[in-house]
Amino acid sequence: MKRLWSLTGGLVLVVAVGLDMIFRHHVHAIFWWHRVPAFEVFYGLLGSLVLVWGAKWLGHAWLQRDADYYHEDNA
User: Fold this and answer.
1) Which of 41, 43, 44, 47 lies closest to 17, judged by CA?
2) Domain locations in the chain?
């Protein structure tokens, strides 16, 4: 199942980069990153990965409790 998700993600990435290369309207770009092919695709991918991994780290480091959290002896 993990391989299927990886292949699907790779295919979506290739299609998004291909569409960005075909339908480029960056002739009068204001900022330098608008001239870089597929910059927005990779920036969005990097941003989403940082959000997911950051939330995962926060959950493991601070939010989750042990399975026997309510069965500890406080004596």
Assistant:
1) 41
2) 2-65
Name residues whose C-beta falls within 8 Å of residue 20's C-beta, 6 or more positions apart in sequence: 37, 38, 40, 41
- Read off the tokens for 70: 């309510």
**In sequence order, which residues have a C-beta less than 8 Å from that of residue 26 and are 6 or more positions away?**
34, 35
Query: Residue 19 and residue 43: Cα distance in Å, rounded?
Result: 16
pTM: 0.64
Each residue of 6-62: pLDDT tens digit?
999 899 989 988 888 888 766 677 888 888 888 888 899 899 999 999 999 999 888
